[in-house]
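Hi everyone,

Forwarding the result from last night's run.
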Amino acid sequence: MASPCLVASLRCSFLPNLLLLSAPLLLIFVASPAQSGSIVTNLPGYDGELPFKLETGYVSVDDSELFYYFIESQGNPQTDPFFLWLTGGPGCSSFNGLIYEIGPMQFDIENYLGGLPKLLPYEPAWTKTASILFLDSPVGTGYSYSTTAANWYSSDSSSAKQAYEFLRKWLADHQQYLSVELYVGGDSYSGMIVPLVTQHIVDGNYQGLEPHLNLRGYLVGSPRTDSVIDENSKIVFAHRMALISDELYEAADTTCNGTFVNVDPSNTECVASLAAINECVEEIWTNDILEPNCAFASPKLNPEIGRRSIKEEHPSEFILSPPRIPELWCRTFNYVLSYIWSNDPSVQQALNVRPGTTGVWKRCNQSLAYTKDIPSVVEVHKNLTSQDLNVLVETGDRDMVVPFVGTVRWIASLNLTVESDWRPWFVDGQVAGYTVQYDKDGVENAFQLTYATVKGAGHTAPEYYRRRCYEMFTRWLHTYYL
């Protein structure tokens, strides 16, 4: 069993703050400039001054206040590329990408005993070689909020448009980054949003909108792309990974006519096959099929507050065993620390979060008023192949949330030419994954796409192998070759 002291310290440090912050809030909005950003030199839990330039703040877009974390390149910010980074969900804070995946900080998870989590430097960060603007989008994500009731509602299309307008406004106020190469990046559900934002940039530049954005490419990791392709691929993946038998897969493939979504309920043989498949995989941890599917602990409902428990909001957040108790550890323990840290008043003050504008900070807000109004962005990718862009599509090969088999399928539909055949790529002399490179009809200085797997990684890959993914990122960014 987990240490009673550990569980108690977590509950004592975490639960009261959550209950306090969960109370109904009267949001008081004050007039603020279109942009508000401040340099942060110290953060609670981090010893000494930050060894990188961090700016946080808000940009006003359509009566919404979009919060950001900007980390300037620790290399040469005058020449290193600039990234707008979007985390998926929809509704997952970009802090998730910053702290668990690609940023220059990490929580001291191994030694956590309760209280405010400590932050440690993380050396192989993507900010070593690029400036990255982490955006909390859409409204209701992280610390982003709206000043009007109507603008709490968002969708794929509105989220992409707002992110584009945010980027234009931010760069107009930080013109020193306009001359460097611009990329748009994101992972998971942001696979839907990144190509849309990229298309907005292409269109805005064509229309002569100012400022002109020096677009060079985009990156999508474990990307949600097409609702039918991605969902179908889960069963194909399960078969390839030996989670379901040949006979069961073939029965489903035959009776469902190769399509496992939006099934006609009257097709009883197909429905029965899918039910049998679900019974085989329902206890698998889909983020990484090799990791344990955990039982969860969470704060309970406080009847005086009348708010549903956080377990109902997102049950996967609250396992309480750290990795130094390996027989009890689950990856979701790591996420608990982001709740404790980001809801701490001293942290919010240090980050310049406006008091009274958000309730409980959530790593992933499951209660967004959000409409998924774009079922596929494959045609957007196809349209972007007409541009001179450098693109990276990367994925963990043990990810069942957005399996690689669906990603390979939609890439094939772009009708690109193989420039460099499928091969392994290496870190420290070991196979780190596999890659294939494409271009547009073999034309030089045109659209180039690199597809890469990260061996053994789940959803999303940088959370599982940060160093390996850093090597992948910097090689692709600076040499276009893994």
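DSSP finds 14 helices and 16 strands in the chain.

Cheers,
N.
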